[in-house]
Specification:
The chain is mainly beta. It folds into 2 domains: 1-74, no CATH class; 75-317, Single-stranded right-handed beta-helix, Pectin lyase-like (Pectate Lyase C-like, 3 Solenoid). Helix content is 4%, strand content 56%. Strands 8, 9, 11, 12, 14, 16, 18, 20, 22, 24, 25 and 27 form a 12-stranded mixed beta sheet that branches. Strands 19-21-23-26-28-29 form a 6-stranded mixed beta sheet, with no helix packed on it. A 5-stranded parallel beta sheet has the order 7-10-13-15-17, with no helix packed on it. A hairpin with a 2-residue loop joins strand 28 (311-313) and strand 29 (316-317). The protein is elongated. It starts with a strand and ends with a strand. Residues 306-318 have low confidence and may be disordered.
């Protein structure tokens, strides 16, 4: 039978006062030292914890942390961070009022997150729900994120990421890479952003699909002048926006503000319908090239490679 290490059996007290961190560390050491699959079990009750590090490598690659209780962190704990993990599965985890990012995946491979629930105050800065960086093969499904910053933020050197069926709001939304979303009163819906400075980076072959916007300030946006400085060197290309519908909180529902030295190319708008206070919205384009398919409202301002209008509304150029 699989080994189970119950932290209460090992001495932890569910009284919300006694520090359970040393017991958690002991439970991890035992599970990590086992040559068989092992489970660290946190039963019902409220356990106070300080900073805890679960370090590997371990003698087995199948350790489960099963939480039926509640872990209350000290005020200096900022996030749950997993570094250099492989085959990570997070299911049914709730994070409430984290000091900074709730969950961080750093240099991880093959990560699957489902039914994650993140709650933080809408006016709390830098409380990204899930931050992924330098990781590959990451899936986030069927989750709810209500916080004061990005619902999901995607950092450098991240590849093969799939995000589906996420409820996100009320602040920044998801910056890049989403499918099957509902955004409610967020500052941004689907956004690609880059700093105004030299870079050899690129964002290409991105597909935003089947998304509902509810009173979102910037439903569709590319911002290559984030923290304005020099011209952005990031090359944005082959980005598709498909089946995006709902309401904008501003008249400009599509805003492509691309680099003057590295134009956005290969943008595609397919079946878009966004309204503002029951009226037709507008689109704004700078240095953006692409095509449209089906019904697109607001009318597209995307240009051919040789012509770049700045703003167009349904009545013509402005």
């Amino acid at each position: 039978a699989e080994l189970t290490f119950n932290i209460v059996t090992l001495g932890a007290k569910p009284d919300e006062k006694s520090d359970a961190s040393p017991v958690l560390q002991t439970a991890w050491a035992k599970a990590c030292d086992s040559s068989e699959p092992a489970t660290i079990y946190i039963p019902e009750g409220i356990f106070f914890v300080r900073s805890v590090r679960f370090n590997g490598p371990c003698k087995n690659n199948a350790i489960t942390v099963l939480i039926d209780g509640t872990l209350v962190a000290s005020s200096d704990i900022q996030s749950l961070q997993i570094n250099d993990g492989k085959n990570v599965n997070i299911n049914g985890l709730s994070s409430i009022n984290s000091q900074l990012f709730s969950i961080v995946m750093n240099r991880c491979q093959n990560v699957h997150m489902t039914r994650v629930n993140v709650l933080a105050a809408g006016d709390s800065p830098n409380t990204d729900g899930i931050h992924v960086r330098q990781s590959s093969d990451v899936t986030i499904l069927n989750s709810n994120i209500e916080n004061g910053d990005d619902c999901i933020s995607i950092g450098p050197w991240t590849s093969n990421m799939w995000i589906e069926s996420i409820t996100c709001g009320p602040r920044h939304g998801i910056s890049i890479g989403s499918l099957g979303m509902t955004f409610t009163r967020t500052r941004n819906g689907v956004r690609i952003k880059s700093w105004g400075r030299p870079s050899n980076g690129f964002a290409t072959n991105v597909h935003f699909q089947h998304i509902i916007m509810n009173n979102v300030k910037n439903p569709i946006i590319i911002d290559q002048n984030y923290c304005r400085g020099q011209d952005s060197g990031v090359k944005v290309s082959e980005v598709t926006y498909e089946d995006i519908k709902g309401t904008s909180a501003t008249e400009i529902a599509i805003n492509f503000d691309c680099s003057p030295t590295n134009h956005c190319t290969g943008l595609s708008l397919i079946d878009i319908k966004l309204t503002y206070e029951n009226h037709i919205t507008k689109a704004s384009c700078k240095n953006a090239e692409g095509t449209t398919f089906g019904v697109v409202e607001p009318s597209s301002c995307l240009a051919s490679a040789n012509f770049y209008p700045y703003t167009i509304d349904p009545l013509g150029y402005s």
